Structures are given as structure tokens and as C-alpha cells.
Amino acid sequence: MRHADVIHPFSRNRRAFWRRDRVFMAALLICFVVGLAGLAAATGWRETWAQIARLGPAQLLGLLALSCVNYLLRGLRWHVLARRLGLPLSVERNVIHFLGGFAMIVTPGRVGELVRMRWIARETGWSFDRTAPLALVDRAADLAAMAAILAVVAMATATGGKMALAVAAAGLLAAWIVTHPPLLRALVTGLHATIGRMPRLFGRARRAARAMERVVTPRAMLPVMGLGLLGWLAEGYAFHLLLAWMGADIGVMRAIGIFVFATLAGGLTGAPGGLGGAEAAMIGLLALEGVPMETALPATAIIRATTLWFALAMGLVAFPLAERQSKRGRDVLEAD
């Protein structure tokens, strides 16, 4: 298949989309900073800055290092899934694709991260319906890993047990549904029979469901789940260290549980990057644990800066690398 025949959603007006997304991300960052500044002013600047002053460069580098562990492990997971799908790309290329996608992490619904599919299409000639299972299983693996962590935390701490277990069970069920090829094929067939239109679209959806069968096997999903669990535990542990350094040690299990639950809650709001929802959930849960506002507020701001916004920074660095790499791959593909 020639590259010109590949169909993907990013083939037109790429520069306009990129300019719009940069403006959108800048606006979100400004809103994030202004909102936290307002809360800090209401809480008391002196108390807030006193807590931030507890952290030195070594502590901040430690938080960023644990975030790097999370993103690199999940990048390796992306490579495992890509190879299982049959993509003939090296680990370096796949990891750059994965990290570069974070440049779009605060786009609505995170759909901007599908830019990874465009890079793959350029380098391999694979159409979107063939690579769609990669993005879907990657998202489902995150959901399943976080749900599993929540379940363990709920059982270990015996606090908020039923609610946390219910959320964990719902997350695991949702992850199973979206990665169950027979069920997806049945849903697509049923929708096509009901609507009776767009046969090409439904045909691509059925091909995507068939392609997923190569990925969601027990042999493939075991390392996928393991890498996701380790990655999210690394960031949760970073939150525990941050709270301890700020004099609010609530225990490693509770800290990890609050971080994971808040991240999930933010994602469920549908807001770009979970902005607003994740911060509100984190501050609220810390308050329930008896953490004073002058500590909960800066702790939330710092952990979000060293996770979400750090991921965005990594994506902005990797994005041009992925662009150049994919264009070279396209030139080679077209020459062949």
C-alpha cells in the first residue's frame, strides 16, 4: 500500500490544528495557575510558600525521576503492544511516538494523542483501522492498572473500602469490555444493522476489532499489565514522598490510593488532562485524611506539575523528533 493511500484523521490542516492546540494548551495552563493562585491567596500565601520551601532541588528531581520511570515504562508497554500487533518499528521509534503524543495530552478527550497513529501511518503505510487497537488497548491497560491499584489499596487500608472497590471493579469491567474483540464485533455489527449506512466506516471498525485479537492474548497482556502497574505505582510513590517531605505523611498506601483515584476522577470528567477534577478530588481526599489546606494545596500543585505538565513538556520535546523521523520514514516508503 502506498503512503498516499493511507487514511488517517490528521492528513489535512495540520499546521492549523497545531497552532490551535498550542493556544488551547497555553490557555489551560494559565487557568490552572490562576486557579491555584486564587486558592493559595484564600488559604494564605505565607503558609503555602512555607510548605513549598520545604522542598529542595534534590526532592524536585526525585519527583521528576519517578515520573520519568512511569512514562518510560508505559512507552515500553506501547512498544510491546506495537510489536504484538505486527508493527515493524524499533523500540526507539515506538517510545518517541509514545512520548511525542503527550504534546497533545491536554486536548479535549485526549484525542490529540492519536497523532501517534499519523506517525505510524507515515512510517509503515498502515491505515488507521489497523493501528486503532494499539491506542485503545493502551488506554484500557492504564484503566485496568489503576483499577487494580485502587482495589489493593482499598483492601489494605480498609478505608473507603466499598466505594473504592466498586470503582476498581467498574474500571476493570470497562477495560475488559473495550478490549474484548467478539463483543466489539457484535456491537459494530448491531450498529450497522440498525443504522444501515456508512458501510466503509463499519467495515474499518470490524477490521480494527479483528486486529485487536493479536494484542489481547494472555501472553501479551501479562507484561502489558505489569509495566502499567509499575509505572503508576512509581508516580503514586512520588506523591507519598512529596507529602512526607511536606510533613503530612499519611502512609504510602493511602497516598498512592489518593493519587490514582484523583487521576481517574479527573479523566472521567472529560476535561483536557483531567484539569479541575483531578485537583479537586486530590485536595478533597487529602482534607478527609486530615491534611491542612496549606499543605494539600501546594502538594496537589507540585504533583500535577511534575506529572501532567512534565509529560506535556516531554511531549513538546519529543514531538519534532517524531515528526522528522516519520517524514524520513514516509520518504523511504514512497521511494520503495
From TrEMBL:
Membrane association type: Multi-pass membrane protein
GO CC aspect terms: plasma membrane
Record keywords, A-Z: Cell membrane, Membrane, Transmembrane, Transmembrane helix
Bilayer-crossing regions: 52-73, 163-179, 220-243, 255-275, 295-321
Cellular compartments annotated: Cell membrane
Main location: membrane
Top-level taxon of the source organism: Bacteria
Keyword Iron: no
Keyword Thylakoid on entry: no
A Pfam family recorded for this sequence: LPG_synthase_TM
Name of the protein in question: Uncharacterized protein (TIRG00374 family)
Organism encoding this protein: Albidovulum inexpectatum
